[in-house]
Amino acid sequence: MFPSSCHYLAFFFFLSGVSCRNESSSSPSYLLLPRDLAFDSTTRLALQSLRQSPNTSFLYLQSLFPHHSLSQKQPYWNHTDYGTLTLVGNKGGHVLEQINQDRSLVWLSETNILSGVMDGHGTAGHFVAEYVRHDLLRRLWNKTNDIEPWLHEVFLQTDQAIPDELAHHGGCTCSLVYQSGEQIYFANTGDSQSFLAAAYGDNEMHVQIMYETRLDKPGHPDEAQRLQHAGAHVTGATEEDDARVWATDPATGHTSGLAMSRVLGDRHHTAVIADPSIQVIDLKAMKEKVIQDYNLYRTQQCQQVTIHADGSSDPCPLAEKPEAVHFFVVSATDGVMDFLEPLEIAQTMAGYLYGNQGHPYLGMEDLLWRSTHLWQQHGQYRDDMAIAYAKTAQV
């Protein structure tokens, strides 16, 4: 039987008390959780204040950055370097009956940054997403030097740890970005996405997507083949619906189709796995690629040669290296990504991060309301949304 809401309430009171041991007891760390634009009037007031004046009062900034200190020290992190926001969807019924099943986080230590999103689905999806967020952070303290296999194991351990009473009634995606020095680790399960963007240029800002995670969908050729080898029933995409993998819950006999090939939870979907796709990016190598791409762009733009009266000419000037290459990462659930491309999101955030458009939180707010408008053009339904960003180390 599905557990009562009282049971869940007690369960998450317990979760909220999970203690986090830091890698070093003297090393400070912070956890930043999102505020919901629909339900949190204080956040809307803070954003309005930021729009009116970039030098808004510290009181308003505190409402946007409700850090949960995990240590005694209180270091200063630039509050424009990272952030996260969320917005509950509209799935029918009264607005106060809506449940936001999306979760996100930004965790900072003196040496590492973890950011990401989780998108819950099913009747217990929000509880699964909340459990995953807490459990991943708890396992963070046992980090090893071999980060790639550690991240893979963390996903599997968290998936196995989800209580059956939750995992049989829902699941969630998980898209994380772990920054360790000049190395960026992307770990993704499901159809939320994370990407690395570069912003650079002289008089004109150029924004480029350097890497984006794969969507784990049953229609992806590799995933479809894997699911079929596992004996799963997969239906292709139609005009009305996405490709789905089907399974029957042995306890209830209920058959459901999942639009993802990898998730955490959803335990009766035995062919659907929690294994993340992991990609490691070296920022120094990525900077060299940015400069090569920029040199090629400048050369292609130089198509006219200046010819003087004496017949001499000025050759096309050599491309110059951009004065600075800025990297940042963004994670977002499909509520944001369904109608916005990664490049559009990156261009918006770059304008706030490195331009003069205002505080980056206004950029996230802009993206959430823009997504809302696009959802409304397609009907009454609107998915939950969550977004998180973080600047990377400078190289």
TrEMBL record:
List, alphabetically, the SUPFAM superfamilies matched.
Answer: PP2C-like
GO terms for MF? protein serine/threonine phosphatase activity
Using the record, list the residue span of the signal peptide; answer none if the entry has no such feature.
Answer: 1-20
Per the record, a Pfam family? PP2C
Q: Which domain of life is it from?
A: Eukaryota
> Which UniProt keywords are given for this protein, alphabetically ordered?
Signal
Q: Where is the PPM-type phosphatase domain?
A: 81-395
Return the protein name.
PPM-type phosphatase domain-containing protein
Q: Which organism is it from?
A: Fistulifera solaris (Oleaginous diatom)
Q: What taxonomic ancestry is recorded?
A: Eukaryota, Sar, Stramenopiles, Ochrophyta, Bacillariophyta
